[in-house]
Write a structure and sequence with these properties.
Synaptobrevin homolog YKT6, five-stranded antiparallel beta sheet, single chain, alpha+beta, Beta-Lactamase, Longin_dom, about 200 residues, 7 helices, prenylation, methylation
Length: about 200
């Protein structure tokens, strides 16, 4: 999974989009290709932003790349575009775009949009590095992975207890916490299960 570029643009309806702030990670491309790839990504970023209606989100696939766009519209008329590979999940991509737009509008005054070269928004460089891992962008995805890891740990713990067979039998026999009836039930269940083992 890889994010190649993220950009925040002013995208007035029916007009040309202007890049206000952007960051890219082209380290996976050869040094000699990077200039052309950067131009292509900037061109495609503007094109997709201009063709995304105000208040709309859309994803566009082009070969092995996906362009996720969120045109917030509103009085600021801003949009954000994320270019990533097709493996990067959709929900974290849109979570990142929403966060980027929220942070940008809270830190950069609208009056500076007319002079993009004067805009300072260093957070965008942090986003492209930090959110290469989609779990950083999506709390739900991160929580789900933590739950999955917990399930794996529990499963391994149960398996390790079951693999000790005889020791577990000895524990049951010696236990004062189990009644004679419970010990009998355990032994009966074990005998019945052993006859049905598939080889």
């Amino acid at each position: 999974m890889k994010i190649f570029s993220i950009a925040i643009l002013q995208a007035p309806p029916g007009g040309a989009a202007t890049v206000l702030s952007s960051a890219s990670d082209l380290s996976s491309f050869s040094f000699f290709q990077r200039g052309a790839i950067q131009e292509f990504m900037t061109f495609f970023t503007k094109t997709v932003a201009e063709r995304t209606s105000s208040g709309q989100r859309q994803s566009v696939q082009e070969k092995e790349y996906t362009f996720h766009t969120y045109n917030r519209g509103g009085p600021e008329q801003i949009a954000a575009v994320l270019i990533c590979d097709q493996e990067y999940p959709v929900r974290p991509a849109y979570s990142l775009l929403t966060k980027a737009l929220d942070d940008f509008t809270s830190k950069v005054p609208q009056s500076s949009y007319s002079n993009p070269s004067s805009i300072s928004f260093p957070e965008i460089d942090v986003y492209i590095q930090k959110y290469q891992d989609p779990r950083q962008a999506d709390t739900i995805m991160r929580v789900q992975q933590e739950l999955d890891e917990t399930k794996i740990v529990l499963h391994k713990t149960i398996e390790s207890v079951l693999q000790r067979g005889e020791k577990l039998d000895n524990l049951v026999d010696r236990s004062n916490a189990l009644s004679a009836q419970s010990k009998m039930f355990y032994k009966t269940a074990k005998k019945q299960n052993s006859c049905c083992t598939i080889m």
